[in-house]
Design goal:
By secondary structure, this protein is mainly alpha-helical. The chain has six helices and no strands.
């Protein structure tokens, strides 16, 4: 097993452990309508799958494509969760979302997952125009669902900036734009650390 795979294995195992710890500590609120929960559920599945497959296959280049694609999707959703939590906390003047379980789920896990993905999980197969949709779709589905439910008075908004007004659509568009930027940046950084000999010609 090469050094990058070893680092990626350790960091993904850490993501799994922190996600489980966060879920246990946050056991009274496990709703998937909470982005923190959804992002960490996806991260748990993606990183656990990565750990199991890398132990079995030994090298990242031998992993099925859906493994790095899922890792990309989970990393983007974790980063978006971090950014949204910072925005929501700033608007409320309350950073309690970064305490206890929130510290693991909203800050530490996004950082570890992002660092692992861009530095130690470079994969030339991700260097495709269509790859970006793996990161965009979870964000689109989650925030579109939340916005529609809040505007239809079917859900009490979990965010200060989504409150059932026409401005919600503007915030949804802004989130989509930010998600696209995060996806592009994450993929660029991932490919930047791909060994020259395996970069796409």
């Amino acid at each position: 097993m090469v050094k990058n795979s070893k680092f990626a294995l350790i960091l993904n195992a850490t993501v799994v452990a922190l996600a489980v710890a966060g879920i246990v500590l946050n056991k009274n609120d496990l709703s998937p309508l909470n982005l923190s929960n959804t992002a960490n559920y996806l991260a748990l599945v993606a990183s656990l799958l990565f750990v199991v497959m890398i132990v079995s296959k030994k090298e990242q280049k031998e992993l099925p494509f859906f493994v790095p694609a899922l890792r990309f999707a989970s990393t983007v959703l974790l980063v978006i969760n971090l950014l949204v939590t910072v925005l929501n906390s700033a608007l409320n003047g309350d950073f309690a979302s970064f305490m206890n379980a929130g510290l693991l789920m909203n800050l530490v896990n996004p950082i570890i997952s992002f660092v692992s993905f861009i530095l130690f999980e470079a994969d030339r197969r991700l260097n495709k125009k269509t790859t970006i949709w793996f990161g965009m779709i979870p964000v689109l589905v989650y925030f579109t669902l939340i916005t529609v439910m809040v505007m239809a008075s079917k859900l009490s908004s979990p965010y200060s900036f989504i409150n059932g007004t026409s401005l919600d659509v503007a915030y949804l568009v802004a989130i989509i734009v930010v998600a696209y930027i995060v996806c592009r940046f994450t993929l660029i950084q991932n490919q930047k650390h791909t060994p020259r000999r395996v970069r796409k010609a």
